[in-house]
Amino acid sequence: SIGHLASGLGTETWVMLANPYDWRWMLDRSDSPWYPKTRLFKQPTPGDWKTVIEEITQALKERVALQ
Question: Checking phi first, is residue 50 left (phi over 0); if not, alpha (psi -120 to 50) or beta?
Fold first, then answer.
């Protein structure tokens, strides 16, 4: 619900999604057609948070490097 609220307010939002995730988050997308400033980080397999954290770590490093 926090992800929906922040995204709905137009705030840049990163959301971690457990596998299986709700169909409304689409299957093979890391963005949302409803929330243009939202980035989705999805578990590739159930319980695999390590991969999600690694992806977020890399994205954060890239984000900081741009500033």
Answer: alpha
d(CA 9, CA 3): 10
Q: How does pLDDT run across 26-35, given as a tens digit for each residue?
A: 888 999 999 9
**pLDDT at position 23:** 86
Cβ–Cβ < 8 Å for 43, 51:
yes
40-55 per-residue burial string, b: 16 or more CB within 10 A, e: under 16: bbbbeeeeeeeebeeb
Q: What is the pLDDT of residue 13?
A: 96
Q: Is 52 helix (H, G, I), strand (E, B) or coil?
A: helix
